[in-house]
Amino acid sequence: MIASGEPLAPGIERLGAAQHGLGAKPWLAYPPGDSVRGSAGYAPPMGADHRPHVRYVDRTREYYAAQGYEKAYRWARYIDVPFAPLARPLAASRAALVTTAVPCRDEKPKDGVLRGDREVWSGETAQPPERLYTDHLAWDKQATHTRDVESFLPIRSLAAWAEAGRIRDLAPRFHGVPTDYSQRRTLEQDAPEILRRCREDAVEVALLVPL
Hints:
Elements: E1 13-15, E2 27-29, H1 56-66, E3 94-99, E4 121-124, H2 155-164, E5 169-170, E6 173-176, H3 183-200, E7 205-209
Parallel strand pairs: 3-5, 3-6, 3-7
Antiparallel strand pairs: 1-2, 4-6
């Protein structure tokens, strides 16, 4: 490993750690194509501060603490997993989609919900939305985009599955559920409301597609 004060070898460039969220210490990028270090072509120095990957648990806990909450973030844990086996084959089951995206502010609200409202909302699968608001969610906004709604709300794909006989049919509504740090609201308010709406539509399989 080359120290920060030494000259760089050909094909190697120095990167600022702030660019990668690793503090003020500089580290080195290895030449592209180095199979040991991956196609991205860089690796941080070994040592006490070495992080070979993003520690999402740490990152979430630190972000939560930075919001001013007195208690540390607690990850959800379930002794009894809230899933159930299918009552009938998938080809004989009605399916519904659940997303964490929300309607755009300048479009007609669905069920009285506008962009940013942390409430459950629903839309008609017969008229898939051309766009949804996703900027409030944690996805890599530099590496990709969400202009292709079908990539995270695959209504047309499930409709094709129904035509091919892989599922019986697609429910008349899809649903949106907010991301929320409050496990209590998720468990006691949002999840039961999603379940209620799915039961209204005689849904037997719910496909969760979070962003």
